[in-house]
Amino acid sequence: MELVLKKQRIRSTKNTWTGLVSFLLSLVALTGINLGLIFEVDILPELVFTKIPFISLLLGIIGLFTKRRSRAFAIMGISLSVFIFVFFIMMFGLAWTINPKP
User: Fold this and answer.
1) How far apart are CA 64 and CA 72, in angstroms?
2) Phi and psi at residue 70, in whole multiples of 5°?
3) I want to staple 29 with a disulfide (CB 3.0 to 4.6 A). Which of 1, 52, 68, 92 is the partner?
4) How many domains, the chain?
5) Quick check: helix, strand or coil at residue 75?
6) Collapsing DSSP states into helix, strand and coil, what is residue 71?
7) How many angstroms separate the CA atoms of 30 and 7, rounded?
8) Average pLDDT of adjacent 10-residue blocks, the chain of 102 residues
9) pTM summary value
10) CA dist., res. 21 & res. 5, Å (int)
């Protein structure tokens, strides 16, 4: 008796362009934040902290609703955008807890 394995069709799914752009924008924002913190210089602070991650979050959500396409980059873009927002909130929240005059 021979063991016959059926060849499974490997679907090649294409990535969504909105998911890819979402991921790339999140990486740009994260790079801007890191460069700003390392060199202690505000490199487009309003753009990096609010506008780019918000646009990335919207594009990632749009990328989640596409059919028959891979959603991996959309999920990674949303994750990085949410991380940036949480980091921003935690950074300011913890900074406000410092009491300069005890």
Assistant:
1) 9
2) -75, 135
3) 52
4) 1
5) helix
6) coil
7) 42
8) 65 82 94 87 76 94 89 95 93 84 70
9) 0.78
10) 39
